[in-house]
Design goal:
Length: about 325
């Protein structure tokens, strides 16, 4: 049976309502956005590429009506994918209902459903996709899979007003330098082993810091006064973090830091210096490959996205 509504445009309503589901990792989120026909036909969106026109980047592409989420917090250690997926399955109904209620609309008002198609944790992605599919089928409306990395970039463009940036995407599992060139998004550099977020969380976990460890490491780094030499690993446009983390672990043990205990129990000033040095070394490598991508693409803007981008350093 054909869908009662079609995508892409036109859609038989003056206002389009889209519900999006995010479930790539530890958070199950749901948001509702609206987009009116005046925006769709104003030239903000390029009809050929489907991307926002750089010259119109300061115009709002949509209105965010709601943004609800529930976060899975492991009792110990890092994210357990299947446990996180079970959390998402239990939270899905509540989160979707809350998003619709806050947006002030009914399920029947929706025109399409979008969901994070990847990259992400397999069990978590499947839970989000199943929820989105069930909702779309029950309402007989289109469903659209969205690339998680590109969503970071486009949301950043819409909220910051930047035009055509190089994006440094730094999350738990993903560390990439992305830009739009020659008609498509391209990855100009990435991690060859683990994402920067996972690397920091693993280091924090060994120190007894609960997930997510990034904010605690950042706080300790602010107290650091001395740079401790650590391996700096850049290979062309790519980076690696495994060697950096191993060196940091070894230095922690050599300087009397008992792994597995909480940082406040150490009272070891070297830990602050080590966290400071860890951040400086890792972030310097990311800056280098991002600058190379800017030179290659001749772009003048940088957009930082992903959870690690919240670090104020």
């Amino acid at each position: 049976m054909p869908s009662r509504k079609t995508y892409p445009f036109p859609i038989d309503t003056s206002i389009v309502y889209c519900l999006g589901i995010e479930s790539t990792a530890h958070t199950f989120g749901c948001g509702v956005v609206s987009d009116d026909s005046e925006i769709r036909h104003s030239g903000i969106v390029n009809r050929e590429s489907g991307r926002p026109n750089p010259e119109s980047h300061r115009a709002a592409l949509c209105s965010v009506l709601s943004n609800e989420s529930r976060m899975y917090k492991p009792l110990e250690g890092g994210i357990h994918p299947r446990e996180a997926a079970n959390h998402h399955a239990n939270a899905a109904g509540e989160v979707v209902s809350a998003a619709l209620e806050r947006a002030g609309i009914k399920p029947r008002d929706l025109d399409l459903v979008a969901f994070s198609q990847g990259p992400g944790l397999g069990p978590c992605l499947r839970t989000g996709a199943t929820s989105a599919r069930a909702l779309a089928l029950s309402l007989d409306i289109p469903i659209i899979g969205v690339n998680h990395c590109i969503a970071h970039l486009e949301i950043g463009r819409a909220t910051t007003g930047c035009g055509d940036p190089v994006m440094l995407y730094t999350s738990g599992a993903n560390t990439q330098v992305i830009a739009f060139a020659e008609g498509k998004y391209r990855v100009f550099g990435e991690t060859l082993d683990v994402g920067i977020g996972n690397a920091l969380d693993k280091f924090g976990r060994d120190l007894g810091i609960p997930f997510p460890a990034g904010p605690a490491i950042e706080a300790l780094a602010l107290k650091g006064q001395k740079y401790v030499p650590l391996p700096y690993c850049v290979k062309g446009m790519d980076v690696t973090f495994s060697g950096l983390m191993t060196a940091a672990f070894n230095l922690a043990e050599k300087n009397g830091i008992v792994l597995g205990t909480k940082p406040r129990q150490h009272e070891n000033p070297f830990l602050s210096d080590l966290c400071y040095s860890l951040q400086e070394t890792a972030f310097a490598a990311l800056v280098e490959v991002t600058e190379r991508a800017m030179a290659h693409t001749e772009k003048s803007e940088v957009l930082l996205t992903g959870g690690v981008a919240r670090n104020r350093r």
